[in-house]
Design goal:
Elements lengths: L26 H11 L25 H20 L23 E2 L2 H9 L5 E7 L4 H19 L4 E8 L3 H11 L5 E4 L7 H4 L7 E5 L5 E6 L4 H14 L1
Length: 241
């Protein structure tokens, strides 16, 4: 019995050793595949290492790549700032307020006003809460000015302070000029709603508080006061010290 002849497949010079124009001499055939069938590089993924396992990336030299890189950079800078890695902004500074009595209607918060009173320890202090829109306040203001001048001339340790609460500052300043007030005054913008007046439980104007020489609150008078009312309470506190 004759051995069966082995059939051999001929490979053309332009087809390549693998039959798809991918081997040696297959350049022309491969170009035809690319032209006729839209194949690029490898017609079947098994012929060469696949790119499926590689993460898709964007070339940073393309416009889209540059955009992605820019967004990533901005996001990184933002995260660095949130984490405190960047320089801290300069702390806000508050201009110091003028001292009590330096000018009419110096603005004061609750804490600032308390600091003013702490600096007056050893003196009897009369704190009068008022507003220019309050009729009784306007009526009692000359009496407070008279008391202030009288104790100052006598050399007594007494200080009168006016607190303009919940008022229009320009109108309050105009009224002080008309009366000729010389004792220190404070502008309490928040006033009855969270200002100095509220911290003294003032709910209606006028109201006059008296502070003893040790800094404690020693009583108050609601409504309009007279010279006699103020002198009586002040003399009592002076004698008690």
């Amino acid at each position: 019995m004759r051995p069966r002849s082995r059939q051999t497949t001929m490979v053309g010079p332009t087809q390549g050793g693998d039959g798809f124009g991918l081997g040696r001499g297959g350049g022309w055939y491969r170009r035809r595949l690319e032209r006729d069938f839209g194949m690029r590089r490898v017609p079947f993924p098994g012929r060469r290492p696949s790119r499926r396992g590689r993460a898709a990336t964007t070339n940073d030299r393309t416009p889209a790549g540059r955009l992605v890189a820019t967004v990533a950079l901005v996001a990184g800078l933002a995260l660095t700032g949130c984490a405190g890695g960047g320089p801290e902004p300069p702390a806000a500074t508050t201009a110091p307020q003028p001292p009590l009595g330096a000018e009419p209607l110096v603005a004061r918060s609750q804490q600032q006003f308390q600091a003013d009173l702490d600096g007056l320890r050893g003196r009897v202090v009369v704190v009068n809460f008022w507003a220019s829109w309050c009729g009784p306040c306007r009526e009692e203001m000359p009496a407070l000015e008279e008391v202030s001048r009288a104790y100052a001339e006598a050399g007594k340790p007494v200080t009168v302070i006016g607190v303009d609460a919940s008022d229009v500052r320009s109108e309050a300043a105009e009224f002080l000029g008309e009366v000729g007030v010389t004792y220190p005054t404070v502008y309490d913008q928040a006033g009855l709603r969270g200002g100095v007046a509220a911290s003294w439980t003032v709910t209606a104007l006028p109201q006059t508080w008296f502070v003893a020489r040790d800094g404690s609150r020693a009583g108050r008078i609601g409504g309009r006061v007279t010279v006699a009312d103020v002198r009586s309470k002040v003399d009592e506190l002076l004698a008690g010290s």
